[in-house]
Each structure stands twice: as C-alpha cells, then as structure tokens.
User: Fold this.
Amino acid sequence: MKTNSFLEIDHYISDLLAPEDHILKDTIKSLDAAGLPQHSVSANQGKFLQVMMMACNAKKVLELGTLGGYSTIWLARALPIDGKIITIEVDAHHGKVAQQNIKNAGLSDKVETKIGKALDLLPQMIKEKNEKFDMIFIDADKPPYTEYFKYALQLSRPGTIIILDNVIREGKVLDDNSQDEKVQGVQRLNKLLSNNENITATILQTVGVKEHDGMAIAVVNQTN
Assistant:
C-alpha cells in the first residue's frame, strides 16, 4: 500500500471518529507561532487515548511531555467531572504555551501543569505518596523511557494503563547497532516490557500522518 493511502486512511478515520474542533486546530497552529516542534499526537491517537481512559474509568491521569497541550486537551476532555490530570513539561516556554491552550479549551480546572525534569519531579511525587494514577501517558524524551516507566509503575495501581508513544522509530528499533540515543532508549524500554512480570504489555505499530511508529501499552497486574 502506498504511503499516501496510509495518510488518506488516517484522515478518513479522524474525520469520522476524531474530528478536530477549532480549539484543537488552534492548539496545533500555536506550536508554529511559538516556535515549538510539531510533535503532538495525531487526532486519531488523541481519540485512542480517550478510549483507553474510558476503558479503565480513569479519574486521575499523569502525562509526561506536555509540549503545547494538544494531547493534554484530548485527555482532559475524557475526564469525569471530578477528574484531574497532572502533566509534566521540562521546557518553561512550552509549558506557558500549553497553559494558554488549556485555558482556551476551558480546562484549566482539570489540569495541573508541573514545569521541570520528570526525573526530578517523579521521585518527589512518589515520596509524597500521592494517590495512584488510573492512566499514565508518556510522550517525552526517549533516552530515559525505561526510568520513566519504572517511576510510572510506582505511581500505579493494579489495573492502571501505561501508554508510551514513539517506541518503533520508523523501524529503527530493529537495528541492534544503532547509535541513536532515542532508538537506544526505546530499545531498552521495549526489552523491559518483555521481561516485567508485573505488567501485561504489547506494542501497536502506528502509521499515518505521524508516519511509521508505535505505541507501547501496558496494564499493571501488580505493584511492588
């Protein structure tokens, strides 16, 4: 199948089941205006996150990697009235853009944005013994994906769904000799998923407007 067919099918799915309103479209436009990279999930992937949230009745969600808030808006819109999302963004400028987009979406009361390195903030959250999260979405820098996942497990309960984006890297994960630190990061993560008895996990290849990649999906069976 030709690449343009993948794109057409992705648009077909999104137009049917994940149409973007002006808030989502304006959020994407704001990335260019603010000089942020266009690394947000696709509309169909945003809808997929909502489906997964509803499947586990998620009321408390953690997101690593806010960027401009596009995925955050998809997540927050699927929360119940008393739901909450904590999103962590390392870049203060990105966080400011995201907060404005979240405000424009009327979701500021459902979203708490933390600015800083997740590797610093996550241990603090664990130490504070916050309530466990129902779903965790990780779409941040790839080299420490394994560390992010290990922290995510400590913030989970049995039944928590953990989703990690960009774990196939256009098939580059097949290169055992890759010197790309992003590829190496997801290779480590994928290997961990195969060996961890506390989770049930798989990886779904994705293809479409975001080209060829994949999402890892893990359900927590038990926590230590």
